[in-house]
Amino acid sequence: MARSNPARRVALLDTAIETLAAEGARGLTFRAVDAGADAPAGTASNYFRNRDDLLTQAGERVYERLLDGASQVVVPADAPRDRDLLVRLMVDTVRRIVDYRTGFLALLELRLEATRREGVRDVLTDRVRADLLSNISTHEQWHMPGDAVTVRLLYQALNWLVVDALTLPGLVDDADLDAYVAETVERLLPTEPAGPALG
Amino acid sequence: MARSNPARRVALLDTAIETLAAEGARGLTFRAVDAGADAPAGTASNYFRNRDDLLTQAGERVYERLLDGASQVVVPADAPRDRDLLVRLMVDTVRRIVDYRTGFLALLELRLEATRREGVRDVLTDRVRADLLSNISTHEQWHMPGDAVTVRLLYQALNWLVVDALTLPGLVDDADLDAYVAETVERLLPTEPAGPALG
User: Fold this and answer.
1) CA distances for A165 relative to A161, A177, A180, B7, B125, angstroms
2) pLDDT by residue (tens digit) across A130-168?
3) Which residues lie across from B80 on neighbouring strands?
4) Of residues B24, B129, B160, nearest to A26 (C-beta)
């Protein structure tokens, strides 16, 4: 029967994420997780049914941590819903992702593992789709400029910007990252007038 | 001393690319390449100085094959340099990359390996930078609409579109891929009028 100490489960998942980022998907074994979490041999196999379960829960954990950060973003009710606000939100988002370096690298490993493992592919497909729909919904609820296509194109362009920043930092200097994000938003919303303040 | 049968070298690199895509970076060993290429044990180690050399030359080979395809694209001299032409070129480019599925997946593996191996990171950084500059230069020589920023944003947005299409095909149905590419170009060039034909 699966153990259910929640803090232990989270510690194992965080170790799995670090292992994915450091060693790649093939380096992620129950044994590596036990060792990395300073847990007795056999612990991880008590918490996760199999390797697919460990992989997909590690992916969930990355999203959870990123969404925790996102949920703390506060947009003042009277802030104009304009391009500048969207730039600020996207800079915050990209910074949050880049700062959680191992989380994003682990997700990239999972993307590649998804080409090999149907179970990982299915869970990740649902997760990414839900995340995108949630971003679109938030965008609309907050009356941000642009539409669903804007959100999808931001998702595409900013995800690859993060790939460049994390894997080939010589291409995107950290000091220039915010400017690249701003440029991306500005080009995707070139003619949008400032929206009215919502009080 | 390194062997120099060019056809053998290319066959070994193509095997390395398939191995990277199928097994991940950690699955790429000299032994796996020898076996995959039906070559006697020790062959790969005669062609490549070390693992970094094998990894970076495999990356070069992917770019070589993609650029070979790109060099066969013909733009009629009298075709208007407008958004429609750019859409057509970008659809061709994305199709070429998606069709060389294992090549792109191998490059993603190398991106992750670049976080672990300085030698891979340096070579890949130079390669991607050179490719981007070459795209910008071609864009300008062909008098295409948009500027260097347009080219960079296309690079960002379309690379991640390919990531989605290849790793989570449930997100981007192959039948919709061209429409997604067109939408990306159209949103990045929203107000650009059609340019004049160049005769």
Assistant:
1) 6, 8, 11, 36, 11
2) 999 999 999 999 999 999 999 999 999 999 999 999 999
3) B197
4) B24
- The ipTM estimated for the assembled molecules is 0.93
**A171 touching chain B per CB within 8 A:** yes
> DSSP string spanning B156-186?
HHHHHHHHHHHH-TTTS-GGGHHHHHHHHHH
Residue whose structure tokens are 């672990």: B116
Best mutation target, A19, A20, A98, A112, to test chain B (most B CBs within 10 A)? A112
User: How far apart are alpha carbons A197 and A184 in whole angstroms?
Assistant: 23
Give the pair of three-digit tokens for residue A174: 């950290």
DSSP string for A135-183: HHHHHHHTT-SS-HHHHHHHHHHHHHHHHHHHH-TTTS-GGGHHHHHHH
Taking each continuous run of H as one helix and of E as one strand, the counts in chain A are 9, 0
Between CA A8 and CA B148 the distance in angstroms is: 49
Q: Which residues contact B55 (CB under 8 A, 6 or more apart)?
A: B16, B25, B28, B110, B113, B117, B120
Gyration radius from chain B CA atoms: 19
DSSP class of B50: S
Instruction: Give the closest of B26, B116, B161 to A26, CB-based.
Output: B26
Please name the residue that has the structure tokens 């340099």. B81
What count of other Cβ atoms lies within 10 Å of the Cβ of residue A107?
24
Cα separation, A45 vs A53, whole angstroms? 10
Hey, what are B21's tokens? 């895509």
**Cβ of B160 and A164 within 8 Å?**
no
Residues comprising chain B, all counted: 199
User: Is residue B166 within 8 Å of A113, Cβ to Cβ?
Assistant: no
Q: Does B188 touch chain A (CB under 8 A)?
A: yes
Instruction: Enumerate the residues of chain A whose CB falls inside 8 A of the CB of residue B155.
Output: 160
What pTM did the predictor assign? 0.93
